């Protein structure tokens, strides 16, 4: 796995001296660690876009490092970031919470941010997406559009709340719907995901929810070739084909990056575990395919607006 080190300079004028606060706030420089690559067109790409939004919004230098998938690699990367004057580090995944819990005490002037984990130190924060509701609404659409009465979920791990949500939403839409749930056991194992996809399609599923990162796009491409449907994941994936992607369950990681960096810059970012959902504007459904009838789209939008206002899903 490539472990390259990226530097993006916002200005030709370098700030004098590492560790000197900017006049605009607390953020000095920002670092990003990703476990695989920023080029996956899904999760990693979202994180990189968020880094660019921070760069543009706050006017600071930003760095990124790929292939950071072990405690040893993370520790070495943090040392490099620290030497360069970085004081806000994003670990782009749930594994980074544990990595940061072990080392954050050594770097009291750096704030560490991870995703969907358990931050336990005073200078670390975990940003947790509430995936159940987005999965629920995605499952409703899948169930509504299925012609075979069977939909498939190809998830990375059993703990993903969007998987349970998708199942419940599909059953709410059609109590007789059959849901085939399979687990890859990794976010990025394309070979296993494609083997699982073959099995799910052979069992009759005609709408697939590929709830993973590195295998998401190839699954969509193969489902498209078969003439079936997909519910996109993490990004609005309608660009892969409106006749294939019915809608997407979107987590706006890039916007959340910018939001949390601004909060830190203003001295308002809390440590510990923070949760975000539709109400915060960082989770949405993506663009609907024109194949989804307009009346059903209106009904879905009404359900989503009700959830935003009341916190209640249509089955509650």
CATH topology-level name of the largest domain:
Rossmann fold
- The CATH class assignment of the largest domain is Alpha Beta
Q: What is the H/E order?
A: EEHEHEHEEHEHEHEHEEHEEH
Low-confidence stretches: 1-24
Strand arrangement across the biggest beta sheet: 1-3-2-4-5-6-12
Given the C-alpha coordinates, what overall shape results? globular
Q: Strand content of the residues, in percent? A: 15-25%
- Taking all residues together, what is the mean pLDDT? 91
Tell me the structural class: alpha/beta
Structure explained in plain terms:
The chain has helices spanning 43-58, 71-83, 95-103, 131-145, 161-173, 190-202, 216-226, 253-265, 294-310, and strands spanning 5-8, 29-33, 61-65, 88-91, 111-115, 124-129, 150-155, 178-183, 207-211, 229-234, 245-251, 272-276, 283-285. With 316 residues, it is an alpha/beta fold. The chain folds into 2 domains: 5-129 and 253-279, Response regulator (Rossmann fold, 3-Layer(aba) Sandwich); 131-251 and 286-310, Response regulator (Rossmann fold), CATH 3.40.50.2300. The strands form 2 sheets. It has a 7-stranded mixed sheet with strand order 1-3-2-4-5-6-12, sandwiched between helices. Helix 1 runs parallel beside helix 8 (253-265) and helix 4 runs parallel beside helix 5. The termini are far apart.
